[in-house]
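Lecture 7 notes: from sequence to structure.
We start with the chain below.
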Amino acid sequence: MSFEAKRCGVQFSPPSIVLIYQHTETKKLRKRIIPVRNFSKYSDYSMAAERLKNHPRHRDYLEGVSQSQLEKLHIILRDHMQGFSLEHSLASFHFNPDEDLNKLDDEELARKKGQMDKLFEKNRKHKDDPDFVYDLEVDFGKTTQEKCSWDDESDDGF
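Predicted structure tokens for the same chain:
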């Protein structure tokens, strides 16, 4: 039997992954609620997602769902268990270039770096691309630098 995953989501009570899938032979849409067991607000989301994806009962259904999407769903569940809102959890997945990454914990920093790597790979130009230019030079123009008060005070002959 083969299944094609259409949509994926979470259910908070009880903690579950909700999968809308299509049976490829009969073309019928079905909904499968996969309970997330032994998962607390202190659990590792990547291990839980991997364990769920490799579970013999759910393996066939989750074959079309990526590991990163399952990890995101587990993060949303864990954040809900920690008392965070859904909006807070969803906002943590968006990359904000103005955000101060020095203030994040190690786990959140690793997640943000992973997002930056994906964005880099998406925008990267390869040698095989038709619009690839070797040794491209771009002039960004000069920006005016602001004078700081400590620049004026420290003219000690350096």
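Points to note: The mean pLDDT is 87. The chain is about 35% helix and 15% strand.
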